[in-house]
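Subject: sequence -> structure tokens, single chain

Hey, anyone have a minute? Need the predicted structure for the following. Not urgent.
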Amino acid sequence: MSMTPRQFESRYEPSWVELERGLAALDSGKGGEKKPRKLKAGEFPTDSTPPPTAARVAQLYRQCCEHLALARERAYPPHLVDRLEALTARAHQRIYRRHDFGLGALRDLVLYDAPAAVRALRWHLLVVVLVFVLPILVVGVATWVDPHFVLTVVDAQQVRMFDGMYGEQAGEHLGRTSGDDWQMFGFYIMHNVGISFQCFAAGLMLGIGSLVMVGYNGLLFGAIAGFLVTRGDSERFFSFVVTHSAFELTAIVLSGAAGLKLGHAVLAPGRLTRTQALMRAARETSPVVFCFFVMLIIAAALEAFWSSAGWIAPGVKYAVGGCCWALVFAYLGLQGRGHAGGDAR
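Reply:
Had a minute. Here:
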């Protein structure tokens, strides 16, 4: 049974006040080492109460993260959510503060914050996956049944280009018609980053822009795949895309989900103003932006130096590709679960 905001605040405020006292003590270098007296339910700490130890502060921080997640989920008043956001941010900065030029913060972002932020978008991800995968299946089957259907998505010049990239004449380098590995590495970064950030930024159009961008990329992929299958080039095409697509296609989906989150904030800000809701959505999706950007760099490197290598046996590429897909799913689905700052329930 959910509590009213007043009941929620009354029940948990003592722990928030205790956390504030503990952070203040740590900041002043007076963090207590003795085990503090455990406060009774609803009892406020007083000036005579010893400040909580560092271990107790960490425990209170984890609890505060859970309280923040509940307050957001139940759409409690903005002043209450803002207070918890400020308190958890302060505690996170104090607990995980490093003197190693930000490497500790980067580690936390990679290991905990990014995958937790992705999992927080699970409903947005579900919508974007459907919008991306369904066109691939529908257009792919339609093109396989009638090869001329590909011309409804791409023009004849593009069809000839894809035929040259994956046909028997592709030669040593699959998936491209010119350029050396390093040149293509730079091209893939610019091209893929451009697509993903378009999917993300288009979310400001009430989320519809992100869905349109993601859906169009699904149409394009399905049309190309269906056409190449009818041409008998399926092995060259799928062995080319199987490895780097684990990162590239996932990045497109993540960028679309993050954009949809922005659009959702604009369309349904709840008790916040649209500007406040958009700023909050931007903060919550910033680790996701970092995640899909890094994935695009990895995808570009694989596509330039591994996927395009025609001398590597398709079976080897399929095996490596399967490992990459398993790695991506494990990272996004499992990494950081149970950590103090992530996946608060």
